[in-house]
Amino acid sequence: xxxxxxxxxxxxxxxxxxxxxxxxxxxxxxxxxxxxxxxxxxxxxxxxxxxxxxxxxxxxxxxxxxxxxxxxxxxxxxxxxxxxxxxxxxxxxxxxxxxxxxxxxxxxxxxxxx
Amino acid sequence: xxxxxxxxxxxxxxxxxxxxxxxxxxxxxxxxxxxxxxxxxxxxxxxxxxxxxxxxxxxxxxxxxxxxxxxxxxxxxxxxxxxxxxxxxxxxxxxxxxxxxxxxxxxxxxxxx
Lengths: 114, 113
Description:
The complex is a heterodimer of chains A (114) and B (113). With 114 residues, chain A is mainly β. Helix content of chain A is 0%, strand content 50%. In chain A, strands 2, 4, 5, 6, 9, 10 and 11 form a 7-stranded mixed β-sheet that branches. In chain A, strand 4 (31-38) and strand 5 form a beta hairpin. Chain B has 113 residues and is mostly beta strands. Chain B has no helices and 12 strands. In chain B, the strands form 3 sheets. In chain B, strands 2, 5, 6, 10, 11 and 12 form a 6-stranded mixed β-sheet that branches. Chain B starts with a strand and ends with a strand.
């Protein structure tokens, strides 16, 4: 089944404790992206990647890191989480061939930073 | 610069009546536009997309949207609401190069039986 998977689905942590949220897709998509969703703000793009070893900042990159060493994986790293990073996080992927293609979204990761 | 404004944060309709969810966009470039739906505690699913072909776009589950460049709008409509349409709807804009995506703040649709 074609899908985007994220782990963990739920995470409660404390301020300053480094964490990684994994994202993997099995559709051979070139493009991958991370978003955070906050009430009343919609989804905001954190980072995106056009292909392996190619990443760029979205609208709200502060406090986050990403890497794209393999085509299928795009982990989101919070080196020193803070309470304002409490949010619902979505990973997405899409083809990057001709034109703009729809993004396929993962199920989300709900992160609470105490 | 690009942005999206969803004009209503909440819309309530009776089952069987038409649905109208409004979206205005701002883009310095020729845009591509999407509508996504998010059911409670679920991920996002594409309803439809506009990428500079036909201005009237048909999507899944009877939804459609019309791209109006003169009005910078991309409103989502459905002739007859169903209970299963109750969800959060997001309008999204990107450039035709499609690397950065900008979401509206969402419209919550309630369908009254």
